[in-house]
Amino acid sequence: MTEQANGVAADNDQNPQFSLQRLYVRDLSFEAPKSPEIFRQEWNPNVSLDLNTRQRSLDGDFYEVVLTLSVTVKNGEETAFIVEVQQAGIFLIKNLDPSSMSHTLGAFCPNILFPYAREALDSLVVRGSFPALMLSPVNFDALYAQQLERMQAAGEA
User: Fold this and answer.
1) Which of 64, 95, 106, 110 has its CA 20 to 30 A from that of 51?
2) Where in the cell is it found (predicted)?
């Protein structure tokens, strides 16, 4: 029985593993350059969102993934506010083939981080006395696929 239990443990060491170790805000900023004058104007916002991800290998099988959301909101020609959050996570990822690892770091992990980043943005914006942004969900799988296509097209060119 002991040999069988040891054999199962050895097999489990080769199975793919994924676990979230820690979520944290790496950087957070809010600026309302036209306050308080902006509050006296009719509110007709134009929202611009910039989204970026990056990842790096830590010790062993640990990886840090950082999702950056930068939002600039203009009311007419004037900037009402600029808000940015870098939502990060540390993930344990083991025994994945290179393609699966790339997809996990480029799409799956940002998918986990996005709701936390969205909530942090909304909280800051509301504290600045503006309406919550309520950003729509993002399809990171589609963004990842588009990035792969761009990289392949650039490789062929």
Assistant:
1) 95
2) Cytoplasm
Q: For residue range 31-85, what is the model confidence (pLDDT) as tens digits?
A: 999 999 999 999 999 999 999 999 999 999 999 999 999 999 999 999 999 999 9
Tell the residue number behind the tokens 């793919």, with chain if given: 16
One-letter identity of residue 109: C
pLDDT tens by residue, 96-154:
999 999 999 999 999 999 999 999 999 999 999 999 998 999 999 999 999 999 988 88
pTM of the predicted model, to two decimals? 0.86
Strand segments, DSSP code E, in 58-135 are 62-75, 78-94
Average pLDDT, the chain: 91
Cα–Cα–Cα angle for 116, 66, 13, rounded to 5 degrees: 95
Rounded Cα gap, residues 104 and 144, in angstroms: 10
**Domain 17-149 fold:** Bacterial Protein-export protein SecB (3.10.420)
User: Is the Cβ–Cβ distance between 63 and 104 less than 8 Å?
Assistant: no
130 class by beta-carbon count within 10 Å (0-12 exposed, 13-18 middle, 19+ buried): buried
* CA distances to 76, 79, 128, 136 from 132, in Å: 18, 16, 10, 12
